[in-house]
Amino acid sequence: xxxxxxxxxxxxxxxxxxxxxxxxxxxxxxxxxxxxxxxxxxxxxxxxxxxxxxxxxxxxxxxxxxxxxxxxxxxxxxxxxxxxxxxxxxxxxxxxxxxxxxxxxxxxxxxxxxxxxxxxxxxxxxxxxxxxxxxx
Length: 136
What we know:
This protein is mostly helical.
């Protein structure tokens, strides 16, 4: 296969999370990025999947990156601020709360996939919901 070099700029904490994942899998950052791109393109090439299945490697990387912030947040505003530092925001979805990227608005997963259900946050923070930065 003919390969080309591509340079990608990532936030430092995301790069470290992906680098740690690559080290644990005895691979490289390039192979993880390539695998994610191939999987992403495959899902958009054919018919949409009925059930939304999130890549386990993505979940693992997001858990590593966001777990402490999600666990230590002291309210909805604090949680919003912590996630925005990483380039993410939460939005109410059919399955509870969904994690989205700030740049594209693309849904990555539900917070329950990361170990934090909407009910968990409601119990901790009380009624309310995260602010959608696109509606501000």
